[in-house]
Specification:
Rossmann fold, alpha/beta, 302 residues, binds S-adenosylmethionine, 11 helices, disordered C terminus
């Protein structure tokens, strides 16, 4: 990110969500605040998306990852998660439309410059900040997430859900695994959802993926947000398992197409942009000798 400036890719992701509300009528992910939080930028975002069909692929991926995360969150809250941490929140609006009375405490963590900018945007759009939300400014590359969250009042003994959307590709591998290892170490147990990209490979669809990734890399480098990491799926899932994660679900382009686009479009390679969820909750209950989680049914182990 450019020193002292808010993330431009956060504006980009929010623009895609706003355009999805109009161009696909929010078919994958409906967000009534998506355009409102963009304020005067919303109209241009929608116009630009209409004029450039090449943006559709990334727009639908962003809609699908957000939908996947919010569906997983709803499930986890029903099973006992009491805290949500939105890592690299950007202009994410979940906190401002969360169901009332769920008792969920929410922490938005972001680079200090992006977070200050978001708070100005919320005020300008007259979107109220709910009492359940705490802002925690942290630079993942330079500061400790655990200290930032402790200062914000996160209770490590409570079951916690982490979303980390559109951030991993911009971090070094070391920063990615240090965050995943912190989450895995939380004594109350945690769920995490994040997205990542495979390195371009060989096979059907790979030329288009490599071209798209290169174009994105060039665009984001120009605004000071280099793509820094990508992962082979098998190796990443093995690292997650080593860290203590279980119940992993990884959706590649083909699974995303089948689940969210009702199978429309041509079958895709499984290499490309992925969304993954993983949990330490089941593993922890077993270790505590409490596989049923105080009377609750254990989650499906994979
Ligand atoms: C592409 S945006 C995604 C925002 C949001 N999660 C979404 O899906 O719309 C990337 C986010 O990562 C944050 N980010 C990037 N590098 C960071 C760092 N070193 N420390 C903290 N946040 C960072 C940016 O501030 C930005 O909010």
């Amino acid at each position: 990110m450019q020193e002292g400036l808010p993330s431009r890719t956060a504006l980009g992701a929010a623009s895609h969500r706003a355009a999805h509300q109009v161009l696909e009528r929010g078919a994958i992910f409906a967000d009534p605040l998506a355009a409102r939080i963009l304020g005067p930028d919303a109209e241009a975002a929608i116009r630009d998306a209409q004029a450039d069909p090449s943006r559709r692929r990334l727009r639908l991926f962003i809609a699908a990852r957000t939908r996947f995360a919010e569906d997983a969150l709803a499930e986890a809250v029903a099973r006992g998660d009491r805290q949500l941490v939105v890592l690299g929140a950007g202009l994410d609006t979940y906190a401002y439309r969360a169901p009332e009375g769920s008792g969920l405490r929410i922490f938005e963590v972001d680079h200090p410059a992006t977070q200050a900018w978001k708070r100005r945007r919320l005020a300008e759009a007259s979107i109220p900040v709910p009492g359940s939300l705490t802002f925690a400014p942290v630079d993942f590359e330079r500061e400790s997430l655990s200290e930032g969250l402790a200062a914000a009042g996160l209770d490590p003994a409570l079951q916690t859900f982490f979303t980390w959307l559109g951030v991993v590709p911009y971090l070094t591998e070391q920063a990615v695994f240090s965050t995943l290892s912190y989450i895995a170490g939380l004594p109350g147990g945690a769920h995490v959802v994040f997205d990542y990209g495979n390195p371009a490979g060989q096979g059907p669809g790979q030329d288009a993926y490599a071209e798209g990734r290169q174009a994105l890399a060039s665009r984001v480098a120009l605004i000071g947000e280099e793509l820094r990491s990508h992962f082979e799926t098998g190796a990443l899932l093995a690292r997650l398992a080593e860290l203590g994660y279980r119940n992993m679900e990884d959706l590649g382009p083909e699974e995303i197409r089948v689940r969210y686009f009702a199978g429309r479009g041509s079958p895709m390679s499984d290499r490309g942009g992925h969304i993954v969820r993983a949990s330490t909750v089941y593993a922890r209950r077993i270790r505590r000798g409490d596989p049923m989680g105080q009377g609750r049914r254990p989650e499906r182990a994979s």
